Structure formats: structure tokens, C-alpha cells
Amino acid sequence: MLSNCQQFETVFNHPSLDPVGTTIELPVMFRQYHRRNRADSNKYAALPVFDTLPRELVPHWPSPYRPPHMHYGWVLKPEPLLEFAEQHDLLFRFSEPESDEDDEELGENKRPEPRRQLSPSELRSAKTLLVEERVFTMSQSLPELTLSLSPKPPKSLRIVTGHNANRSAVLSLYSNYDLPNIPSDEFINKLAKAMGYTEKPRWFLDGSRVTWMRWDIAW
Fold first, then answer.
1. Number of CB atoms found within 10 A of residue 174's CB
2. With contact defined as beta carbons under 8 Å apart, do 76 and 168 qualify?
3. Secondary structure (3-state) at 135
4. What residues are paired with 203 via a beta bridge?
5. Would you say 186 and 168 are in contact if contact means Cβ atoms under 8 Å apart?
6. Are 138 and 85 in contact (CB under 8 A)?
């Protein structure tokens, strides 16, 4: 942990961060003394999304506490990743779909038995499987898409849950803990074009790591 901490002895300067010396009045939920409780969930969801990251939320060692996890990126667009998966045989399915050959095996004079109506619990399970298939498919597609853009894509790229992203997933270019290894502008521009983004990335709050923690405590 100590070696990771020491990376943040540096004062980082980057266009996605507020200038050094800038201070703003953060919402209470972002402040160091705030401790999360069960009633906070909706409040976290309503927190602002930042165009540039406030200096208070940039990790700095040897401060004894590290700030909440923030992600710089966009609300995820599933369609480009799903289309890429279909084009490159990356679609994930828990079971193979029925083929036309199954119908042919029934013969001309035989009809398939009508499918019974699913129960509410079975419908919920089926919908859950469909969602999970999409998630797995996108997770498989993202590394392959980035490899098509660069032979050495950044390791910081990931799909995460954004607490203040209207309950949507976020395509994270990097977090406030990836500042020593920020992707190049060239790569970010290529990815934005491939994914159909025209707006600039912004800073979103992580879906779970939302409080200040001591450096020596794992997330």
C-alpha cells in the first residue's frame, strides 16, 4: 500500500482537474468528515457531476485520508459495444439460441408444441439473464475495441457503476487514482469517435466507494 500512496506525493496538473490552489464549496456528502449511512443513497445519486475534478477530491499523500473514488468518462452507450460484439463474434449467451434446424427436424406434418406462458418469477429471471448477457458482452467487447484503436490501450479503461449517473453505467477513462497514468488525448479522441460521443467526459462518483478512507484500509 505504501508504494501506491507514494505515487500521490506528486501534485498533478491536467486539464481534467481544477487548477492547483483552486478551492470550491463541496456538497456535504463529498466532505471528509461525512460518514455514510443508509439514508444517503438518494442523496449520493443527486450529487453534481463535475466538468473538472475539485482539488479536494484529488488524492494526496501524506494526507492520512484518501477521497472517494471518482471516474472521468461518459454515461455508457451500450449500442456501439453490442454492435462491435456482433461484428466480431463476441456476443455472450448463457445458452445457445434455438436454430431453424430444430424446426426442420420436426418434419412437415408435425408442429412444435406451444410454449407455455412463463410465471412472473421466470420472467424476472429471464430478464436478469438478458441484462447479464449484455453486461458480459460489453465487458468482452471493450478490451477488443480498444485494441483496435491502439496496440497498447490504457489499463485504466473500465465500465463502472456511477452513483450520480442516473443509475446508469459509466465508461471510465480513468479514475482519480489513475492520475499517474492518464490516457493520451489521441486515444481518448479515437475512443470518443468509435463510441459516438461528441461531448467532453465528466467526473462521476463511483457506485460504491463513496466515502473518505484511511490509506491503510482497503476499499
1. 24
2. yes
3. helix
4. 50, 72
5. no
6. yes
Cell of 69: 473514488
pLDDT of residue 2: 46
Residues 18-56 as b/e (b if ≥16 CB within 10 A, e otherwise) read: beeeeeeebeebbeeebeeeeeeeebbeebeebebbbbb
Share of the chain above pLDDT 90, in %: 46
What whole-number distance in Å separates Cα of residue 60 and Cα of residue 54? 13
Between β-strands 65-66 and 70-75, what pairing exists: parallel, antiparallel or unpaired?
unpaired
The CA distance from 148 to 35, in Å, is 43
What pTM value is reported for the model? Answer: 0.80
DSSP state of 91: -
Per residue in 54-106, pLDDT tens?
999 999 887 888 999 999 999 999 999 999 999 999 887 766 555 555 555 55
For residue 12 the three cell numbers come to 498533478
Alpha helices in 9-98 (DSSP H): 41-45, 78-87
H or E stretch including 203?
A: strand 202-205
pLDDT at 125 over 80: no
Q: Say if residues 163 and 210 touch (Cβ distance below 8 Å).
A: yes
Strands 169-175 and 158-161: antiparallel
Q: What CA–CA distance (Å, rounded) separates 86 from 13?
A: 40
Cell numbers at 195, concatenated: 463510441
For residue 95, the model assigns a pLDDT of 60
Instruction: Let me know: does 11 contact 180? Beta carbons within 8 Å.
Output: no
* pLDDT digit string, tens, across residues 206-215: 988 888 988 8
